[in-house]
Amino acid sequence: MSFSERDIPDLAGKTAIVTGATGGLGYETARMLAEHGARVILAGRNQAKGSEALANIRATAPHADSAFDMLDLASLASVAAFVARQQARATPIDILINNAGVMTPPTRQTTLDGFELQFATNYLSHFALTMGLLPLLRAAPAPRVVSLSSVAARQGQIDFANLQSENGYKPMVAYSQSKLACLMFAFELQRRSDAQGWGLTSIAAHPGIARTDLIVNGMGDASPAAFIRRHLTFLFQPVPQAALPSLFAATASEATPGGYYGPRWLMEIRGPVGVAVTPGAALDAGVASRLWDKSAELARLPFPDMAGAA
Questions:
Q1: CA within 20 to 30 Å of 41's CA: 72, 126, 281, 302, which one?
Q2: Quick check: is 27 catalytic?
Q3: pTM for this predicted structure
């Protein structure tokens, strides 16, 4: 499989939302979508960074139709407000890329809602966001939802007795669980769409390991893996290259519903886009269904359409 920025099709007339789009992978993903004609909503929690990202996109694509909208994934109220604004605009959403994330804070942190920060930001709020936007996704002719996982999902385990890491917090364990949850959500979303006729294409992707601030600033773990991520960044992918699995999942005609894509080389750390190896735990449909139900409970069904969709 060969896929580059040049292979992104013309996206004129399509609307895309990218979370965490003010920097790193999210910015590069939004930029490439905008440069290929999509109307892109950059969702992020920092207005100043959002304005800067928009200015940078418009500098490279003067005719790009892009906008920033506030979204703090550490707050379900912020997610609900974002969804309400999109519903008020009533514009069908063709592409939703659940990209934003936080990685291994050294001590356990919680959101405004009392959830462990990584579980909430990386997974639970994206679950709530996707379900809240479901009516607008279903209004598009061929909607796609892309959920960002990680190579760390291979070590992940969904621990229903300790989803919030209250009974002992280990940064990488919590991160791996959150990214496994993202992968399982992508697969379960496709299963439920097929069963209930939602018409969605749900695909997972991971970037390998990219040279982003997430690695430099986020690694609180003192493990050898953390050392490698901090100090051997020459092994890792440039950010535009690392964004390609997400863009393939979001735009390529060859992308398979319920698929999983990432780089092919060096144990999927870097390289051209290909089919990613799926951890065995991610294929447990029973656990995925239970996680879905638990997530709906934790998210408190804040959106009117969510209960019916789930």
A1: 302
A2: no
A3: 0.92
